[in-house]
Amino acid sequence: MNSEHSTSLAEQRVADRGIERYELEAWHTQFGIVAGITGRGFDLGLASQRSTGEVLERWQRLQTDAFPQFPSIVVSRQIHGTRIARYAPLPPGILIGDGWDGHVTRVPGQLLAVTVADCAPIYLVDRGSRAIGLLHAGWKGIAAGIIEHGIETLCDVAQCSSRDIVIHCGTSICGSCYEVGPEVLGAVLGRPAAAKGLLDLRSAIANRAWATGVREITVSQWCTVHHGDRFESHRGSAGHAGRMVAFVGRLPS
Ligand SMILES: [Zn+2]
To answer: Distance, CA 120 to ligand 1 centroid (Å)?
Structure first.
């Protein structure tokens, strides 16, 4: 069920070297960009119950096994806010920020990452410069304006206009699986809601992006609940899910 402003585009399964993930072939071909999400069973949550050492070791394995072309990976403890970090060239390694729900860069070889388990990862690219962005968008962040702020930040970094930007709304809970109260519906849709109802996060995001001038918007067909055999769902597991990592990076030429 897509917004009238978006078309569907599915990430394809990749399973080399033991870390199952799903990637957008179209972005690889068209932009030289790796964009996707890891599958279930490889918990990368920074606030999970596993020990910090174990989680860090997994991040290091993700880098060496799955993304050797990316010397730097950035990720942050997320707070469902609207702060977005921008990056100059970074030293090799894994940079863990605090309080950033979005990342933007124009530097090739940097892998941007957000952790998700129902919230939507939002991938952005400027067609011209191939500067990229990645946002962590749950209902709170959407209501607070992270989509608009993310587009604005990428436009600033890339010196482009919103019409130059392509957006993909990635794997998240779908509109038939996500029932929310009227206060949540009202906050995301920007108008009062009288009763609880189903919320399609990605449609709401597509509509907001369209309103800023973005004209090329795609939506993943994967749902974390419907496709719970492949992905982690916070809601589908009563809060016990691990965290997947969504990633985007421009390959060094
Ligand atoms: Zn669903």
So the answer is: 13
- Give 1 Cα–ligand 1 centroid separation in angstroms: 10
The verdict on residue 180 lying in a domain is no
CA of 226 to the centre of ligand 1 (A): 4
Higher pLDDT, 122 or 43: 122
Say yes or no to pLDDT of 132 above 80: yes
- Using the mean position of ligand 1's atoms as its centre, give its distance from the Cα of residue 211 in Å: 25
CATH code: domain of residue 21: 3.60.140.10
pTM, to two decimals: 0.95
Mean pLDDT of the residues in the chain? 92
Q: Judge whether 227 lies within some domain.
A: yes
- Tell me: the pLDDT tens digits for 92-106? 999 999 999 999 999
Residue 193 lies in a domain: no
In a domain, residue 106? The reply is yes
User: 117 CA to middle of ligand 1, Å?
Assistant: 13
| List of E strands, the chain | 7-8, 12-14, 21-23, 33-38, 72-77, 84-87, 93-98, 102-105, 110-116, 120-126, 132-137, 165-169, 179-180, 197-198, 216-219, 244-250
Distance between Cα 227 and ligand 1 center (Å):
7
* Residue pair 186/140 in contact by the 8 Å Cβ criterion: no
Ligand 1 center to 137 CA (angstroms): 17
Domain that holds residue 43: 7-174+202-250
Q: Looking at 113-127, 158-172, 228-242, which range is the least confident one?
A: 228-242
Number of compact structural domains in the chain: 1
